[in-house]
Amino acid sequence: MDRGDPARLVGVDGGASTVRAWRLERGPSGLAAAGPAARRPFPTDPPFLPVPLARQLAERAEGSPRLGAAEEARGELVLAAAAEAIAAVAGPPPADLVLGIAMPGLPDAGGRGILVLRHGARLPRFLDRLAARLAERGLGLAGAPARLVADGRAAGFGEAYAAGGALVGVGTALYMAGGTGVADALRLGGRFPPGAEVRRWLPAAWQLSGPGGRPFEDLVSMAGINARWAERSGATEPRVEAAARSGDGRARAVLAEAAGHLAAFLAARLAALHRGPLRGGRGEVERLVLGQRTADLFLAPDLAPWFAAPLEKRLAEELRAEEDPRMRAAYLARGALRPGLLVASALHAAPAAGAVAAALGLVEGEP
After folding, report:
1. DSSP letter string over 130-199?
2. Could you tell me which residues are beta bridge partners of residue 186?
3. Which of 290, 291, 300, 292 has the alpha carbon at shortest distance from 241?
4. 148 phi and psi, to 5 degrees?
5. Is the separation of the CB atoms in 147 and 124 below 8 Å?
6. Dihedral of the CA atoms 291, 297, 301, 305 (nearest 10)?
């Protein structure tokens, strides 16, 4: 149920390297950013090496994460960045905020801290510690978030409930965004199924093996793409798209290869859904939505020959090879992708807006 529209809405997108916060407004077309984001990157010196994933998962199962000094220190940097970004957009204190926070990783049982994070430091009791830091700045929480929202789900919520979102009015869709890792969401028949239900059909990208046995997350995330570019070139320019724009053939080849991996990933997602909730002709995916930096690549006209065009071509090839005739009929038109199937969203505030939508009670089924 909708819990009302407070005076100050702040949404946070907490990544593995940067925290972004937006002041949001609620209008007739949905939530919208009231201004630019406040960005607070984490210092990279000293570098932080995450705890091995197997250990994180085991300690989460035990309910007792054991953080070392380096991880504790990194977590303090994340908390400081989040508090600073929120304060930068919240307006002058004293103030009460309705706050929505999107975070990567696997939460604790109450959803108030992060106990597994592949690309960063774990953050137990994150919400409680952040509330204390905000109180020191004269910022209280009216309608404080009951729990963190997974970054992919939050982005899906944002695309559905923010003005101009790519999922507004769409019943069944897949969302995928690549940054440091991969964030994804599923909308099924107009609702967002619980995360545990989604993972029965769609394992996380870091759990799903792609070509060569590497996790798809390492093949299609921007961090993974840039890592392959660095490995192959030894270049000091860390962003593959900048090198591709300058005419570097190796960078363009890395982008085209990543487009092929992304096509395989999306086709595998579609096939999994048709083996699961869409089996037996129970519907089809209306839209595949790319977000964040993946969308930026797709929407860049000067990079289209090496990313958007090969992605569309390879995805069509993957779908033509599908044995299920219903899939071919649903997603292809004369051998090419059905118009409107693959789209990119320029809504960078989607995770923050989606977290606020959840905090306001706009998302059906969310606590």
Report:
1. HHHHHHHTTEEETT--SS-EEHHHHHHHHHHHBTT-TTTT-SSEEEEEESSSEEEEEEBTTB---HHHHH
2. 174
3. 300
4. -70, 155
5. no
6. -130
Encoded tokens for 329: 């009929």
CA-based end-to-end distance of the chain: 10
Helix or strand (DSSP H, E) at 204: none
261-286, pLDDT tens digit by residue? Answer: 999 999 999 999 999 999 987 899 99
pTM above 0.85, yes or no: yes
pLDDT tens column, 187-235: 999 999 998 899 999 999 999 999 889 999 999 999 999 999 999 888 7
Contacts of 289 (CB under 8 A, 6+ apart): 159, 166, 167, 173, 174, 175, 176, 343, 344, 345
In the chain, the percentage of residues whose pLDDT exceeds 70 is 96
Residues in a beta bridge with 288: 174, 342
Task: Yes or no: say if 264 and 211 are a contact pair by the CB < 8 Å rule.
Answer: yes
Q: pLDDT tens digit string along 118-168?
A: 999 999 999 999 999 999 999 988 866 778 999 999 999 999 999 999 999
Nearest residue to 175 (alpha-carbon basis) of 344, 341, 290, 347: 290
